[in-house]
Amino acid sequence: MPRFSVIVPAYQVQAYLPACLESVLTQSYADLEPIVVDDRSPDASGEIAGEYAARDPRVRALRLPRRAGAGGARAAGAAEATGDYLLFLDGDDTLTAHALRAIADRLKETGEPDVPVHAVAHAHRDGRVERDAAGMVLTEFLRPARAHYRRYRTPGAAVRPAGRLRHALIRFGLHRTHRLLRLAQAAAGRLAKAAVKAARAGRSALLRLHYRVQLRLPLRADRAVFAAHRDRSHGYHPGALEQAFRAHAPQVRTAWIAAPEHHHTVPPGPRRITPGPAAYWTALARSRYVVSNDHLGLVKRPGQVFVQTRHGTPAQAQVVPLDERRPVPSASAFARPPLATVPRPAAAPTVAERL
């Protein structure tokens, strides 16, 4: 881990960036990592950063996907930094000779403060140099926090188990350990998100494979599956047809697709199916009859009967014919059951229009 991470945001500074980077790389204190952040600069700043990164392994060049401004570029560079201390240097500024050596020595003399604030000098075009009269000032954050913690914490106050370690680190002034813990927690969070994303992708792939296998198996002539708009409760036209199936074709086993919060509306008799799992795709692939007033995102296979009902007046079409294309839904359907509705059929012409 380097001692200093020097963050250099670069936007339209191609005339100054080489001098800036040279002032960093020629420092007598070499334990550093320069990070140049190309803030989508329209000039050659990004190319210059890439050339320095290829020439010196300590230099890292980042290119932002979109313009973020100076603050956003600094934040992006800080997120990639691994040094003990961050030092922000604009692309049109330079470090004076031995600046990092002086800062490192001062840090050691003052007992490793959390935040060093160093002096600056303003160089004008006419050659004048104005130095900051305040000089080098070192300030701290965690040490006052430790003192306040010991002074104001109520004895016996409950601390949540998840925060006990951080409380202990602040109490004993273990600043670097506290920072490493935060970095580890952030890395664990990113790893958890990546794991969830990979698990979802794997589940979708397995469901696609399962559905394709089910399409190759024979239809079940004694099965019928029903669904209402957006996986809602039992009812509407599909609900009436499901009751008719049970009354007039008892040899056909019916099933109703509904979200878990609507399972209680399904009467005794039909099987309850939750959208998404393998059982859902098995029912859609192998049931001879599929009845819905919503668009399920599928097309029928040979021998399968699809009945799609609609709400409305008798003047509207109540059955929408489905084409005979290949019965394979889109990949996104396996990640979450589709909720899109069928376009509304055109209304029947009035008597006046016929005349």
UniProtKB/TrEMBL annotation:
<dbReference type="GO" id="GO:0047355">
    <property type="term" value="F:CDP-glycerol glycerophosphotransferase activity"/>
</dbReference>
<dbReference type="InterPro" id="IPR043149">
    <property type="entry name" value="TagF_N"/>
</dbReference>
<dbReference type="InterPro" id="IPR007554">
    <property type="entry name" value="Glycerophosphate_synth"/>
</dbReference>
<protein>
    <recommendedName>
        <fullName>Glycosyltransferase 2-like domain-containing protein</fullName>
    </recommendedName>
</protein>
<dbReference type="GO" id="GO:0016020">
    <property type="term" value="C:membrane"/>
</dbReference>
<feature type="domain" description="Glycosyltransferase 2-like">
    <location>
        <begin position="5"/>
        <end position="156"/>
    </location>
</feature>
<dbReference type="InterPro" id="IPR029044">
    <property type="entry name" value="Nucleotide-diphossugar_trans"/>
</dbReference>
<dbReference type="Pfam" id="PF00535">
    <property type="entry name" value="Glycos_transf_2"/>
</dbReference>
<dbReference type="GO" id="GO:0016758">
    <property type="term" value="F:hexosyltransferase activity"/>
</dbReference>
<dbReference type="InterPro" id="IPR001173">
    <property type="entry name" value="Glyco_trans_2-like"/>
</dbReference>
<dbReference type="Pfam" id="PF04464">
    <property type="entry name" value="Glyphos_transf"/>
</dbReference>
